């Protein structure tokens, strides 16, 4: 069969169908629609799911291993608690205690051993060359020899993060903070106590664990934690079953919602309604849940309004003045070839980016990058030239 210009071996389709428990016609359909796609370059032996299929998460990757396959499952969707007390008691019914960990604001990465190589896999299932270099540099690779069947699920954080750069965590360059360890093929997570034991053994950084709380008082404790995280402009928490049997929930601070909106409205034509509206609705539920008085409510809506209107005004003004809108990020690499590979990688993803000349800093190279937001630029310019909305 063919997928675009590529010939897919029928024997491969048959074996993959048997492994996934699908019929062959369905696997052929996945290839034809490019819902199951081959990675490119030196990682073209990896196949990634570009769409969620039958509980196989988008971003899941698979590859041949012997006469079968090995799978690295994607990131499970974590549903959101809009109000804490009733949601926690309903979702975690039957548990005596729940665990609360910090939800850090970075870029999701899975790191695993794949065919004797250590790879960093993005949420979408691509192999990021920059993140892979950093993973090999930052992590104790002995872990992957000792536990080749396990995958680290974590957050890439810091100012040298080209996806979600943040200064708020006091990180000089970039670090990995692990929040889950999961098994290959099944995607089953290790219990939290076992996860902590392994991460501590190998000296891995891990997201902060605020502890276990009785279910009947957890909402009150989490509210206190969220208020403190908000003061530092941190994102929020993930609430987990200590045994990781029930699915986790997430809950975020008002400051995080507003930070997201500031970025979204700066590039308003890139961010869709499904991104913006939920963050505004969260503010409405939280102000009622927290029983805010008029002064507290006014502070909230002034902060919310400013996070929407100020970046929007700045973007429109910039385009009116003949300036191009772009997002400034940076990377820091030991090998300049990694920067070249990362530039080519972004081009393959359709990202319009300008890489400046590398600046030597110690034994590394700092490269500033301008990521052009073409859609918002073009839309804003067209409106100034008289186009209707």
UniProtKB/TrEMBL annotation:
Q: Which InterPro entries match?
A: Lig_Pab1020_C, RNA_ligase_dom_REL/Rnl2, RNA_ligase_Pab1020
CDD domains, alphabetically? Adenylation_RNA_ligase
Give all residue intervals belonging to the RNA ligase domain: 97-252
Give start and end of each RNA ligase Pab1020 C-terminal domain.
Answer: 263-387
GO molecular function terms here? ligase activity
Xref: Pfam families: Lig_C (PF18330), RNA_ligase (PF09414)
- Where are its TM segments located? none
Keyword Transmembrane helix appears in the UniProt entry = no
Swiss-Prot/TrEMBL keywords: Ligase
Q: Which SUPFAM superfamilies match?
A: DNA ligase/mRNA capping enzyme, catalytic domain
What's the protein called, per UniProt?
Answer: ATP-dependent DNA ligase
